[in-house]
């Protein structure tokens, strides 16, 4: 393995692949049950939740594929950063699927306003309760990984949204029993669709931030540059760039202008430790300069 490659143990998503697989099996099985119940009962709330369950299945499948690619060593010599970004693209798929489900549910809900179809409530109660149980188990399995991996976080957020959907199904059934009005099925389905859309936008912003190579969340460029200039031997810092390669892998590059007589090796070690311990940069590539490089002034981007 080359010095630029990382093993599977270092990849956050790869560490939680087994739990992702268990959640995928649970969600896929229950989705089939809910689709059948939704079609038999005619409940839009159940159908919206089943649609979101389908989004869960797509998202989890993409997450599993992504973690497999992300943990695979590069044998071509062309992917110098490996395939870690695969999990970010999988999170992007989750966003698109969630938005598609949300749009469908909202449009269908608006189309049913004014109608009054007869909808049996007992399938909604049973399926809603079972769905909530499946979601609860899934959340427990994914909670730790969601703190480390954007890919797992995408799946975790999908399950959170679906748990809310299961609660919504139970609420809709309860209100229909109390009031005798099927309008609550439409109202709850509309609420589920809007909730899913909001969750998708939140995750989508994170995905775009990574793909756009924005500074990692919580990383202050000015504060990092200031801390580096305060180190013994450092006179100035320029061309400081930081971005997220994938979840848990924040990287940075910078040029350090050394003072006369500074110990290059000791300065390099202190600078890397500062970025790692204070600013959360797992890997920093630093160029040490005795005098300003002409290339730094010539480059216009």
Verbal overview:
The longest helix is centred in the middle third of the chain and has 30 residues. A 3-stranded mixed sheet has the order 1-2-3, covered by helices on one side. It is mainly α. It is built from 10 helices and 3 strands; from the N terminus they run ααααααααββαβα. The protein folds into 2 domains: 204 residues, Alpha-lytic protease prodomain-like (Up-down Bundle); 78 residues, Cation efflux protein, cytoplasmic domain (Alpha-Beta Plaits), CATH 3.30.70.1350. α3 packs parallel to α7 and α4 runs antiparallel to α7. It comes from Demequina zhanjiangensis. Belongs to the cation diffusion facilitator (CDF) transporter (TC 2.A.4) family. SLC30A subfamily. Keywords: Ion transport, Membrane, Transmembrane, Transmembrane helix, Transport.
Question: Secondary structure elements and their pairing?
Answer:
Blueprint: H1 12-15, H2 17-41, H3 44-70, H4 86-112, H5 122-146, H6 150-179, H7 183-211, H8 221-229, E1 234-246, E2 249-258, H9 264-279, E3 283-289, H10 294-298
Parallel strand pairs: 2-3
Antiparallel strand pairs: 1-2
Helix pairs in contact: 2-3, 2-5, 3-4, 3-6, 3-7, 4-6, 4-7, 5-6, 6-7
Domain Cation efflux protein cytoplasmic: 217-290
Subcellular location: Membrane
Keywords: Ion transport, Membrane, Transmembrane, Transmembrane helix, Transport
CATH architecture of the largest domain: Up-down Bundle
Would you identify the CATH H-level superfamily of the largest domain? Cation efflux protein transmembrane domain
The portion of residues forming beta strands comes to 5-15%
Strand line-up of the largest beta sheet:
1-2-3
**At the first level of CATH, what is the class of the largest domain?**
Mainly Alpha
Helix content: 55-70%
Overall tally of structural domains? 2
Assembly annotation: single chain
State Rg.
25 Å
- Detail the poorly predicted runs: 1-11
Q: Mind summarizing the main beta sheet?
A: 3 strands, mixed
CATH topology-level name of the largest domain: Alpha-lytic protease prodomain-like
What pattern of helices and strands is seen along the backbone?
A: HHHHHHHHEEHEH
> Which term fits the overall shape?
elongated
Ends apart, CA distance between termini: 33 Å
User: Mean pLDDT, nearest integer?
Assistant: 81
Keywords: Ion transport, Membrane, Transmembrane, Transmembrane helix, Transport
Family: Belongs to the cation diffusion facilitator (CDF) transporter (TC 2.A.4) family. SLC30A subfamily.
Domain Cation efflux protein transmembrane: 21-211
Pfam families: Cation_efflux, ZT_dimer
């Amino acid at each position: 393995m080359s010095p630029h490659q990382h093993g599977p143990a270092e990849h956050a998503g790869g560490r939680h692949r087994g739990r992702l697989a268990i959640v995928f099996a649970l969600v896929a099985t229950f989705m089939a049950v809910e689709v059948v119940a939704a079609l038999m009962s005619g409940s839009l709330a159940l159908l919206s939740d089943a649609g979101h369950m389908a989004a869960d299945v797509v998202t989890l499948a993409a997450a599993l594929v992504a973690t497999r690619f992300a943990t695979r060593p590069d044998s071509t010599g062309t992917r110098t950063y490996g395939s870690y970004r695969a999990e970010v693209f999988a999170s992007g798929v989750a966003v698109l699927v969630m938005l598609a489900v949300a749009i469908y549910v909202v449009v269908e809900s608006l189309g049913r306003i004014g109608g009054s179809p007869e909808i049996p409530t007992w399938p909604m109660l049973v399926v809603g309760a079972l769905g909530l149980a499946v979601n609860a188990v899934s959340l427990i399995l994914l909670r730790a990984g969601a703190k480390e991996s954007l890919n797992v976080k995408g799946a975790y957020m999908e399950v959170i949204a679906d748990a809310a959907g299961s609660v919504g199904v139970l609420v809709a059934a309860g209100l229909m029993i109390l009031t005798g009005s099927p309008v609550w099925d439409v109202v709850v389905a509309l609420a589920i669709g809007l909730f899913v859309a909001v969750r998708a936008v939140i995750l989508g912003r994170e995905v775009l931030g990574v793909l756009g190579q924005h500074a990692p969340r919580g990383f202050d460029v000015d504060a990092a540059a200031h801390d580096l200039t305060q180190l013994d031997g450092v006179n100035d810092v320029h061309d400081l760039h930081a971005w997220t390669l994938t979840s848990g892998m924040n990287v940075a590059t910078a040029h350090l202008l050394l003072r006369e007589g500074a110990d290059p090796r000791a300065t390099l070690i202190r600078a890397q430790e500062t970025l790692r311990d204070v600013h959360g940069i797992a890997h920093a590539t630093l160029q040490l300069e005795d005098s300003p490089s002409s290339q730094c002034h010539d480059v216009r981007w």
